[in-house]
Design goal:
mainly beta, 262 residues, 9-stranded antiparallel beta sheet, 18 strands
Length: 262
């Protein structure tokens, strides 16, 4: 497959939950399912428009879900910090699908503050180990807002572990999440199948922190959104063979390559 974004396919794996009614985006390196019909019980009511299955070519889906994105009034904290059920979206739509690129767009709203609109665009190009994801948070209200934004991810395959740059491999228990200041702007998870799934952020990432444990990991940062203003959160959602001994070094390489191109 060069490039495709359509319904009708399912990504196999031990925690696969997508159906043929959901949208699968794929190229020669990876495939990812965005929910349009499937409801994940842990993302009850807000699954639509979020990625629920993902795997590198030749691997099975080990991802439970990506809670991508969230926007919350209070700082996410504690063992259930990942459970920010705060962005509800309408339909995910394939707006472009050619041999050169495919684009899926999702329009959503903050559950806690309907003045905040949340629009996410997924773009896949040929032969890349990632899908570019851009979310625009727009304050349509009359007052300035201060909110927490980010993404959470849950790799449920055997041997699950998280990675944050500068902090190595994280295997903290579920009840003991911690905050980490990342040396580079990415978070990742991996398991015994030697597949690495991650989020590599770009743009202004000085406030970006990682938070989580060995079961799940999330990004979080606080932003001020003046009335009528927008904020762009940009990241690559990566699925790739782990390669070296350190399963997370591949995420560092993708980040550094992106910096070099800039």
């Amino acid at each position: 497959v060069t490039i495709n974004a359509s319904t009708g396919k399912v990504l196999p794996g031990p925690v696969s939950e997508g159906s043929t009614q959901d949208i699968m985006m794929e190229n020669s390196k990876l495939a990812m399912t965005i929910a349009t019909a499937t409801e994940d019980p842990q993302l009850q009511g807000v699954t639509k428009g979020k990625p629920i299955d993902m795997a590198a070519k030749g691997f099975q889906d080990q991802m439970d879900w990506f809670n991508l994105p969230y926007v919350s009034k209070a700082q996410p904290t504690g063992p259930d910090a990942w459970q920010q059920l705060t962005v509800k979206s309408g339909e995910a739509k394939v707006v472009e699908s050619s041999s050169e690129r495919a684009v899926v767009s999702v329009s959503g709203t903050s559950v806690e503050d309907p003045d905040i609109k949340v629009d996410t665009t997924y773009t896949i190009l040929p032969d890349q180990d990632w899908i570019t994801v851009e979310t625009v948070f727009a304050n349509t209200g009359q007052e300035s807002k201060s909110v927490w934004i980010g993404d959470a991810m849950d790799y449920d395959g055997a041997g699950q572990k998280s990675g944050v740059p500068g902090h190595g491999t994280i295997t903290l228990s579920y009840s003991d999440p911690k905050e980490f200041a990342p040396a580079e702007p990415w978070i990742g998870m991996s398991g015994s199948d030697r597949q690495t799934i991650g989020l590599v952020y770009s743009g202004n990432t000085t406030e970006l922190k990682a938070y989580g444990n060995g079961n799940w990991i999330m990004s979080r940062q606080t932003i001020n959104l003046p009335a009528g203003e927008k904020y762009l959160l940009s990241r690559k959602i990566v699925a790739t063979p782990a390669g070296s001994e350190d399963p997370f070094s591949v995420l560092s390489s993708i980040y550094k390559d992106h910096q070099a191109v800039k």
